[in-house]
Please model this.
Amino acid sequence: MSHVTIDVSPSLEGYQDVLGSSFKASYNTADDVWSDEPAMRKVLPLLLERLNPDSHVLDVGAGRGRDTLQMLQAGHSVDALDLAVTSDWAALIACWPERLSFIEGELLTVQLERRYDAVLDNGCLHHQHPESYEAYLRKLWQYTLSDGVLVVSFFTPSGVANAGTLWLQHDGRLTRDFTEAEARALLQTAGWMVEQTAVVPRQSGAHHYLVVVARRAGE
Model:
């Protein structure tokens, strides 16, 4: 998908509509190449190894439910949140009616009814508008129980870089890659204590995944 590097992001106004339209179009045309990318599947194990039995997890940007399914199979309950509803969800809910719910919506505006043992964000934060990064992480903090776990994956430069870059996709969607220092600072500002970071190489592209494990700090 074509993109250009930019120094100044477009206006925040209307961006969530642009983001929603982009992802819905990708799923409708089966252009969601990330759904089955091998590197994406290496993020969830860092969360699973930290979950207590019967945990309740919020899966933000759940997509086609690849991570959600693994968490259900491991015995956990999942609330899956995404901007787009795909055809995969009806079958998943039919199989796991007591432990799975799907919420169509956008994190910054949706009102959830509980707090969670853990939150998974496998590739969503780096598509948010730059003016919303901290608010997005604070919203995750709000919905996480004390000492709850957050696992979030960012795009990160594949080589040494002093700072990440912001790209504009052809359909108006923004993508940001973060260095480890940038990711740590952002999470700490939003009330998260970073416990672990790991770089997951991708088979293609100029950017890898930076996975960060953090704990909710304070009340």
Remarks:
- Strands lie at 3-6, 56-60, 77-82, 100-104, 116-122, 144-157, 166-169, 174-176, 192-200, 207-216.
- The chain has a mean pLDDT of 92.
- Residues 52 and 117 are 9 Å apart (CA to CA).
- Residues 3-216 form a domain with the Rossmann fold fold (CATH 3.40.50.150).
